[in-house]
Amino acid sequence: MKLNKIAIALLAVAAAPLSANAGVTISPLLLGYHYSEGADDEQRELFDVNGDDNGIYKENGLYTGAALGVELTPSTQFQVEYGVANNDGVIDGSDVEFDVEQETISGNFLIGTEEFTGYTDNALKPYVLVGAGRSKIEVENQEAYNGVAAGEELVESTDTIGNLGLGAMYRINDALSLRGEARAIHNFDQDWWEGMALAGLEVVLGGHLAPTVAVPPMEEPEVVETPVVIVDEVEEDMDSDGDGVPDSIDQCPNTPMNQVVDARGCPVTVDVTDELKMELRVFFDNDKSVIKSQYQPEIAKVAEKMREYPNSTARIEGHASKTGPSASYNQRLSEARAMAVKSMLTNEFGVAPNRLSTVGYGYDRPIAPNDTEEGRAMNRRVYAIITGDKTMTVNQTKDMVIQ
């Protein structure tokens, strides 16, 4: 059928440039129950085949479909969905049966509630669906009726429809989700309502888009004042370890010469903040977002440092060379490269996703000219900055500068 050919063409054209990028979703099989009996009077009028108002009732039936989408934000996506509902039809006062096939193609926005309430780590992601499309209904005889041969088409109707629904995704992992949905469908041309309940599996290529994680401000280390030790000179009392406290009252003898002590002759401890600042550079092949094996040890070093500094965070920037079909394509490619590094840190080395933020700059920030192969190779990159700190308690020495 014509609508079927259009649907296949749209899915194929959309899949080709997006398949390598993060945030591309595929629902390979959607199964549902299509409810249509609530509009019997209107449907009977539409399918009246002999002019005596004894028209055909279209019964409820099974719906099968597939969808291809792209994430616009971490909780919102746009999908193109194609599906077919195969129903039976019966005529008033007759045992004659008919095949009724309803073929639909629609574009739908899936708007997650976290877009308004804030992002969470919950696996359950509710959403609202709003969309529109086209519906084609065909009625064929299963047996000869009213002068029409068996298998011959009785009536065909192509109409505009609108979709409104509520659903939820359950994320099994960053690449796989279960989907359930209840949907109301309005036929604008025939002015009737239909309903549908469906479920399916959704696969995301390259990982979901991630919300930007704000880096917490650095805190000033606490300043510890060194107490002043006043020792009365006793001519007969010795100071064997030379810490300024006579042996007679020194509770910590043999203190190293360079250490600061208190009035008892014991070491003074201070908190010292050790800051982390680390960089990571990963280069990619042309039009690719796959991390080459030579960079995996460098990413492993970043993960080791982030475990050593538990409050550290990383900002991961993706870049592309000025090649490809369009600026938007290079933008998505740069985002996919940043997401590839984040996914390796999360999935292979156990770094928490909320400690990693990603951003793609397309080809807007080159570090080398794009008119040579060497320059383009330098621009196909990911650059990450890792920052953090940790506090340690140590014995204060006299040459230590306390800020």
What this model shows, in words?
The protein has 403 residues and is α+β, with helices and mostly antiparallel strands. It has three domains: 2-205, Porin, CATH 2.40.160; 227-266, no CATH class; 273-393, 60s Ribosomal Protein L30, Chain: A (2-Layer Sandwich). 17% of the residues lie in helices and 41% in strands. The protein contains six helices and 13 strands. An eight-stranded antiparallel barrel has the order 1-3-4-5-6-7-8-9. A four-stranded mixed sheet has the order 10-13-11-12. A hairpin with a 4-residue loop joins strand 7 and strand 8 (176-187). It is elongated, with a radius of gyration of 34 Å. It starts with a helix and ends in an 8-residue tail after the last strand.
CATH overall fold name of the largest domain:
Porin
Span between termini: 77 Å
**According to CATH, what is the class of the largest domain?**
Mainly Beta
Global shape: elongated
**H and E order:** HEHEEEEHEEEEEHEHEHE
Main pleated sheet? 8 strands, antiparallel, barrel
CATH architecture of the largest domain: Beta Barrel
What's the arrangement of strands in the largest beta sheet?
Answer: 1-3-4-5-6-7-8-9
Determine the fraction of residues in helical runs and give it as a percent range: 10-25%
Counted beta strands: 13
Summarize the structure.
17% of the residues lie in helices and 41% in strands. The protein has helices spanning 2-18, 40-46, 114-117, 296-308, 327-347, 373-379; strands at residues 24-35, 56-58, 61-73, 76-91, 97-112, 124-141, 153-171, 176-187, 192-205, 269-283, 313-318, 356-360, 381-395.
